Amino acid sequence: QVQLVESGGGLVQAGGSLRPSCAASGFTFSMYNMAWYRQAPGKERELVARISSDGSTYYADSVKGRFTISRDNAKNTLYLQMNSLKPEDTAVYYCARRSIYTGRPDYWGQGTQVTVSS
User: Fold this and answer.
1) Which residues, other chains included, contact 95 with Cβ-Cβ below 8 Å and sequence gap of 6+?
2) 55 three-state secondary structure
3) Which residues pair with 22 in a beta bridge?
4) What sign for the dihedral angle of Cα 105, 29, 69, 108?
5) Which residues are 103's β-sheet partners?
6) Each residue's pLDDT tens digit in the chain (118 positions)?
7) What b/e readout covers 71-104, taking b as 16+ CB neighbours within 10 angstroms?
8) What is the largest CA-CA distance in the chain?
């Protein structure tokens, strides 16, 4: 069965860096577009970044220039390098597989908490 397991969140001071990862299993990882979403308390879940099967990327304006999404198909792992973190980046970060047919997320990980202190 499809599994997405995030790790690498934590507590960091403003201006610091974190690199969450998402280990995928149960499907052919290299064939799928993948994405990172986040949800802050009291807010809706929002798209942070996505990466296609061919490696092309998209970033939300709020993280452009600070975050980098990448993938290692040999390790079936998705990454999110987060630099210059701000308190407003505090959220639970989720990785998601995007459906080949609809482009919408069809599987989610359990999430990893990222907290940025000021």
Assistant:
1) 4, 6, 20, 22, 24, 34, 35, 36, 37, 78, 108, 109
2) coil
3) 6, 78
4) positive
5) none
6) 999 999 999 999 999 999 999 999 999 999 999 999 999 999 999 999 999 999 999 999 999 999 999 999 999 999 999 999 999 999 999 999 999 999 999 999 999 999 999 9
7) beeeebbbbbebeebeeebbbbbbbbbbeeeeee
8) 42
